[in-house]
Amino acid sequence: MEYSFNINKVDRNRDIININSIKKLDSGDKYYDDKIVEYINNLSDSKYFLEITKFCGYSHLMVVYKEDSLLDLYIDISKQMWCNKILGLFGFIRKNRYDGTLDIKKMPLTANMSIKEFVRKNKLTPIESIQRPCVFRVFIDDGPKEPDSDSDSDSD
């Protein structure tokens, strides 16, 4: 069986799958393949992809409901990233083209604003190299890295 999706060349180091052109997958199970393709194609109707990025550089991709509150987002990220101490979440707005700095906006810890409202109000910019579905970057501040509890430094 052959794959029937197109690879878009974004740059020499990265290939992006164009999900608009997925016709079938290679599992051999047409029902399963159809459901996966339908799920991927309908994600943008009710969900966002968020790339959750720690300030150390580690990142993780999550799918969240647009209508979830920012409080729900804090809870979901806490569970997904195994982080009990989130000091803040920051939405990526844009990269300053003059000095390369990032414009970010702290996301309030509130149940009174949806993720969709925050994205729209603050004009978050999707990650440029991803065409569809739309992926937004959210930075997580989980504080300074704590020393390992099993290290030799505290045992005398």
UniProtKB/TrEMBL annotation:
Name recorded for this polypeptide: Uncharacterized protein
Q: Name its species.
A: viral metagenome
